[in-house]
Design goal:
By secondary structure, this protein is an alpha/beta fold. It has eight helices and ten strands. The chain has one domain: Rossmann fold (3-Layer(aba) Sandwich), CATH 3.40.50.300. Helix 3 crosses helix 4, helix 3 packs parallel to helix 5 and helix 4 crosses helix 5.
């Protein structure tokens, strides 16, 4: 369960204050798939980063499974992320001195999960189509390949909440469909809550609910009674 109340974020630029988020109220139920849409500058990525505890709001509160994260220390936030959060960054955020396999292994090792983290990492990289690139470093991978490594890393800890910022933005349609199927499988099998920032209407159709932001405010919500099961457009799905 994600509970957001009267969330604001204001940045100071010189003598000016810029309001990024303006009083966001939001509830996301366990196992729900939510897509966040909006034009550039509407506050989508800022909201996602606040949900993950990467930044602190100017005011308001965020509760994840009943825990108020807005006043947690960095150490407490790191522990919480390790226990329950996966995050797919738009900019990948891979560690350049680690191979693809080592990047994916890292969250498993940090959690101290039983079993072989190397075997889990290879299985996840195979699932995203990178079985032959396990030993390559980020600089040796294309942008789309780096994105897929980042996605595999987000899955590695079997998170209860997965936050994704444009997860298929740098991928071709076939690979994007495969990635979204992996996310939805995580949702179905493990009950993982998914919150996705996207510009892609095909991804939005996969969500239980679409939340639209504009100028830092929620301006609309659309609930899908029946979730679309394919990334194909309605015309293509035939």
């Amino acid at each position: 369960m994600i509970e957001v109340r009267n969330l604001t974020k204001t940045l100071v630029s010189g003598a000016h204050e810029v309001e990024i988020l303006r009083g966001i109220d939001l509830d996301v139920d366990p196992r729900e798939v939510v897509a966040i849409e909006g034009p550039s500058g509407s506050g989508k990525s800022t909201l996602l980063g606040l949900l993950a505890g990467f930044d602190a709001p100017t005011s308001g509160s965020i509760r994840l499974d009943g825990e108020d994260i807005t006043h947690m220390s960095e150490d407490e936030l790191a522990v919480l992320r390790g226990r329950k959060l996966g995050f797919i960054f738009q900019s990948y955020n891979l560690i350049p001195t680690l191979t693809a396999e080592e990047n994916v292994m890292l969250p498993v090792e940090l959690r101290g999960d039983p079993g072989r983290p190397d075997a889990r990492a290879r299985a996840l990289l195979d699932a995203v189509g990178l079985a032959e690139r396990c030993t390559h470093y980020p600089a040796q991978l294309s942008g789309g390949e780096q994105q897929r490594v980042a996605i595999a890393r987000a899955f590695a800890g079997s998170p209860s909440i997965l936050l994704a910022d444009e997860p298929t933005g740098n991928l071709d349609s076939e690979t994007g469909a495969r990635i979204m199927e992996l996310m939805l499988d995580l949702n179905r099998r493990q009950g993982t809550t998914l919150v996705l920032v996207t510009h892609d209407p095909a991804l939005s159709r996969l969500a239980d609910r679409v939340i639209r932001l504009r100028d830092g405010r929620v301006v609309a919500e659309v609930r899908h009674e029946t979730r679309t099961l394919s990334l194909a457009s309605p015309d293509q799905a035939g």
